[in-house]
Amino acid sequence: MFKSFISIFSVLIGLVLFSNVNNVLAASEYESNDSASTAQSISLTKNTVTIDGDFYDNYDDDYYVFTLDQAGKLDVSINRHLNVQYSVKLYNASMNEMESYYTNYGVNKGTANLFSQGLDKGTYYLKVERYAGQGEGIPYKLKLDFNPSESYEKEFNNDFSSADLIPLNKEVRGFADFFSSDYFVFELPKSGELKIDMNRSLQTKYEVTLYSGSRTELERWTTDYSNKKMSNIINIGLPKGTYYLKVRTYEGDRDNIPYSFKVNFSASTAIENEDNDDESRADSLRIGSSKKGIIGSYYDVDYYRLDLSKNTNVALQITNSKNARFYIEVSNPNRTFVQYYYTQYGHNKLKTFANVNLKKGIYYIRVKRYDGQEYKIPYTVRAFKRDTTPPAIPSVNRVTSKTIMITGKAEKSAKLYVYKGTKLLGQGVVTSKGTYSVKIAKQKKGTTLKVYAKDAAGNKSKVKTVKVN
User: What is the pTM of this model?
Assistant: First the structure.
């Protein structure tokens, strides 16, 4: 009878004490709210709700229910107690547990954040109970802060089937745990380049994994300890389709750690499409075209397929990276033709690594890291029909024993060389107008000079012989 009177009195007090001051809604717990079916209703239309409750004995559980009419972020706080540890659990409308946290023993200095959660619109339950410690009539203060926003994850999103659909080129926020991952799904409308940026933390390392629509792992990256707000972690070329992203903590502080990331996308047909790690999934590379690629990790391999409709003298180029060297293999399907190449460190410029006469048929170009930088190495690979026509014989203006500049005409942009026997006297580059001038030392009368040109493809002209007058 006495407990019934207490319950009725608590209900009346609870109804009376709701007040709205500075967007803070205050309330008192009322019994009996010991189950989901009798849960006390809370309004979260305002920014903050604080609830004063108590456990009348060691077996008292308090349930609260609230409905969100829009998505957003929920912060759950509770006070600390020297003799009791509280437990707070969050459930969805089906009473599936979403989060479970408990407090440490401590001095009551107001409420402190227990956990945060991104939630979709809908109905949710909170259960507050004694986790450890003894005593009756133990008070607690529960505080709920709700911030409406579409930029947060929406739990449950703990597997592929419940992954959050997220937009491209917009920041997404969430709260990561070690034993429970957050999954996201997004659509690429066209083939193109994907760059995923993520924040860093001084206390936590995050692990981010990218999957194809068939849930095959494409890239995995672990962040470092840092205070950078946002920086690139994954850079990859992908075809049109559906993709998944998984986020969890990896090291350091592991539970309820805030994070933010952005999936940046730009459409392009000039970039490789992962997963192109074998011949069956090789990207097409046409004569006269180029492809941008990224060696994403130490184990990444990129394949390109070259289809030749006739016998062709092919020149192949790749970026000579400042930070890495590449191993490149050119072969046909039955491997009766196989050539191996190693690039050198350079200045991130395209450089020819192979001039090969290839018969009509299919060929594969395999690119992988050889040494140097291990992750996210950009490059460009290019195939074109090699120029096999040598330049015309250069013309040389009159040379005397007083001449210090050899002049004449030759193929535009070719290199021009002047020799006396096997000794190189000078060299230069033919202008866009087809003229050249090469500085040399004065030569004795009757000396024979040899002049020839070499084009960009390496073709050498016939030698022009002149005598010094």
Answer: 0.80
